[in-house]
Structures are given as structure tokens and as C-alpha cells.
Amino acid sequence: MDSNARGLEQKDGVSPLVDTTVTVVLPRALLGLFPDAPRELSVEAQTVCEMIAQLDARWPGMRDRLQDSTPAVRRHINVFVGGRRATLETALRDGLKVYVLTAISGG
């Protein structure tokens, strides 16, 4: 399967998309901070960055938990699109599932 079929291409290599709805699966750790946020929800977005903006519009402060000021996905957060790790610029395709996971670290 090529990267186009998985929706993994970067935004500057993709023509504009319309009506792109993805299913976002949020980590349970994040739900503790946003108790009214569901574990799984549909979002209209063309990139991971737009997806995070949509989440932040519904639950103010969520962007700060997922994205740093550089901007990039926070160090201890992983976003997976089509089974592969994604960046803010990763393009989304209609019908994909996007998993947001918290990294576990320690010693």
C-alpha cells in the first residue's frame, strides 16, 4: 500500500481536500483533564494541525496539551495516522482513524 492510500503524505505534496472527516481516539490520561471530551469522536480536518485546532475549539486548552510552541507535537505525545507516526503537517484522508497516545517514560 502506498503512502497516498494511507493518508501519510505531507500537506505541501497534496492537492486541497474537502469534506475530510476522521475519527480521533484520545488517550484516557487526557480525558481526565477534559472530562466532557469523549474517548472517540469525529473531526473535520485536512491535517493533524487542523485536527488539533478543532479539538481546541471544542475543549479550550487541549492544544497546549498536544502541541508545543515550536510548533510540533509535544515530546511525550504520539499521533498515529494509518498506523504510522504523524507530524502536525501530516495530511488526513476521509475515514481514517487518528490515535493520540501518551508516551510512558521513566527509569
Automatic annotation (TrEMBL):
One family name in Pfam for this protein: ThiS
Superkingdom of this protein's organism: Bacteria
Organism field: Hyphomicrobium nitrativorans NL23
Matching InterPro entries: Beta-grasp_dom_sf (IPR012675), Mopterin_synth/thiamin_S_b (IPR016155), Sulfur_Carrier/Prot_Modifier (IPR052045), ThiS/MoaD-like (IPR003749)
Annotated protein name in UniProt: Sulfur transfer protein
Upper taxonomic lineage: Bacteria, Pseudomonadati, Pseudomonadota, Alphaproteobacteria, Hyphomicrobiales
